[in-house]
Design brief:
Layout: H1 19-24, H2 36-41, H3 58-62, H4 67-76, H5 83-88, E1 94-100, E2 103-109, H6 120-128, H7 132-135, H8 148-153, H9 161-181, H10 190-200, H11 202-218, H12 242-257, H13 269-272, H14 290-308, H15 333-352, H16 379-400, E3 409-411, H17 413-419, E4 429-431, H18 435-453, H19 471-484, H20 493-503, H21 509-526, H22 531-552
Antiparallel strand pairs: 1-2, 3-4
Length: about 550
């Protein structure tokens, strides 16, 4: 229990005494100009400087009005100001006299200007009322005295709908689409650079909103989905400088990706334009954010090439941030990923080119120039030597990949079925620590499987690790990696195309259903519709099953 002390009023200390008494913790009689204690001790007596704060509605408080009546009366004074009222009725000068302990303090309010000047209303209306939904609602600045209900309605989603939608699309692009475009590279500055450019160029801001709104409308996103309105292309984009115009067109093509099926990605208008990556031998010279956008569209091109069995349109000048001449420096994660893409592009060029034309030499490694002349040795010997070189590079990367590119947990197919009784598909379980490491391994398995499908007949492979030369093993690894990891940025276009590619040869019903479930998750997360691809796969599986029944019967 606390101790209760009975102290006489004459001996109670106060907080308004002089500084000397307060420092000595003695009772002060608060005499002016000197207290009695300071006079007896012959010391200087000083009082602290007090700042008097004028409280609102002192007159109403002295009259004893209730707080609810005061708040209601003050709320009733709120009104909107338009051009007419502000110009005709300027606020006059006012003086308020307030007394505090006998000393008068004057508060002078000088002549103030209207909140909105002539012509400011049009600017504010254009900023807040740019959406079609607001045109049907009366502007809050049109009347002088508005009811309290309309004042509350000012803060609803009816007003400034376009501004809210634009903010939602920008947030979605920054935190969802940008990491997906960067392939999960945490060291990329694309997201920051594109937003800084959007602050300066309205055409880039419009292109970002257009791409994000299309993706939002086609995916099950928490940002509102259909509530976000799709914006039209800003006509000022055609008047921008070439670099800014190329960035804007690449962003608009990003939105077009979500409107096409993966098998139709090759029909993107961006690939047919002069702004595409077709004649681009080096990406690093463009700088951010254009470099990352061009690399993303090159991945779209590689994915389309894998599904259509056609050579990629993009030249293979993937410039690496690492200097090939300096072998002592470790490769960055981005450089390793770019090297894997170069390997995949080289395989697609070799296997899908007609008569092995337009294939570059191996110096520098995996580099293709659009102006290079086709080589003239015999097709068989050149194909075998090129195939052997690509296969050797693939396996060398797999055995010497850095630790961050290796799975932290890897369970084989048979063991996976024994661990999880509900796992009927028995896909292997490789668990990775980052999305970019997952994608690098996916690209390796796709490249190796592509080469195995077209292996020269007389070429013999090493028998020490036979699983590396198995088509089924690479397909199982691709499926297990995609279904057993859960990164927001893992659904890269190449991964989606790789899953559709290996799904054609899946024969077990449980594995087929597992892939169908994975495709539905991809559609829900990215907005890329795979309905036609799923129907084609089911038709292919049914045809293969019926053919198997005929052969067995």
């Amino acid at each position: 229990m606390p101790v209760i002390r009975n102290i006489p009023d004459a001996k109670r200390r106060v907080r308004t005494g002089c500084l000397s008494c307060r420092k000595r913790r003695r009772k002060c009689d608060e005499g002016k100009p000197q207290c009695g204690s300071c006079q007896e001790r012959n010391v200087v007596c000083k009082y602290p400087d007090l700042t008097f704060v004028i409280g609102p509605k002192l007159g109403a408080q002295e009259k004893g009005g209730s707080s609810s009546e005061q708040s209601a009366s003050s709320y009733a004074n709120v009104r909107f100001v338009n051009n007419n009222s502000s110009s005709k009725a300027p606020i006059q000068s006012t003086e308020v006299q307030v007394s505090a302990k006998g000393e008068g303090l004057s508060l002078h309010v000088g002549e103030s200007r209207p909140l909105l000047g002539p012509g400011d209303e049009n600017i504010l209306d254009s900023f807040i009322g740019s959406s079609s939904s607001q045109s049907k609602t009366a502007s809050p600045f049109a009347a002088i005295n508005l009811p309290q209900s309309e004042w509350k309605d000012y803060f609803t989603t009816t007003h400034a709908a376009s501004v809210k939608n634009e903010t939602a699309t920008l947030l979605h692009f920054q935190y969802n689409l940008a990491p997906w475009i960067e392939a999960g590279d945490v060291g990329s500055s694309f997201g920051t650079e594109i937003m800084l450019l959007a602050q300066k160029r309205r055409s880039i801001l419009s292109a970002i909103s257009s791409a994000a709104s299309i993706q939002l409308a086609r995916s099950n996103s928490a940002y509102g989905g259909p509530a976000v309105l799709q914006r039209d292309t800003d006509p000022s984009l055609a008047l921008e400088e070439p670099r800014v115009r190329r960035i804007g067109l690449a962003l608009l093509a990003l939105g077009e990706v979500f409107t096409l099926n993966p098998s139709q990605w090759r029909r993107l208008s961006f690939f047919q334009s002069e702004e595409s990556t077709r004649n681009t031998n080096s990406f690093s010279g463009f700088g951010e954010p254009l470099e990352t956008l061009l690399r993303f569209h090159s991945r779209i091109d590689l994915a389309a090439s894998l599904l259509t069995d056609q050579p990629p349109l993009t030249s293979l000048g993937f410039a690496m941030n690492h200097d090939p001449a300096d072998r002592t420096l470790p490769l960055s994660t981005k450089s390793i990923y770019n090297a894997c893409l170069i390997q995949l592009a080289s395989c697609l060029q070799l296997l899908n080119s007609n008569n092995n034309s337009n294939i570059a030499s191996t110096s520098p490694p995996f580099y293709l120039s659009a102006t290079q002349e086709p080589m003239s040795p015999t097709a068989g010997s050149y194909f075998s030597s090129k195939w052997s070189s690509l296969w050797s590079n693939c396996q060398q990367w797999y055995h010497s990949r850095p630790v961050e590119m290796q799975p932290i947990l890897e369970i084989r197919s048979v063991e996976a079925g024994q661990i999880d009784a509900d796992n009927d598909s028995s896909f292997p379980i490789p668990v990775y620590t980052s999305s970019i490491a997952l994608q690098c391994n996916i690209v390796y398995h796709i490249s190796s499987r592509l080469l195995l499908l077209r292996k020269p007949r007389l070429l013999r492979l090493s028998s020490r690790q036979r699983h590396l030369s198995s088509l089924s093993w690479h397909a199982q690894q691709i499926a297990g990696t995609a279904t057993r990891n859960d990164f927001a940025e893992q659904w890269d276009p190449i991964l989606i195309a790789g899953l559709l590619w290996i799904a054609r040869d899946m024969t077990h019903p449980s594995q087929q259903e597992s892939l169908i479930s994975c495709f539905r998750q991809i559609s829900s997360s990215t907005g890329i519709k795979l309905d036609e691809e799923i129907q084609a796969l089911r038709a292919r599986w049914n045809s293969s099953q019926a053919r198997g029944y005929q052969l067995s019967g």
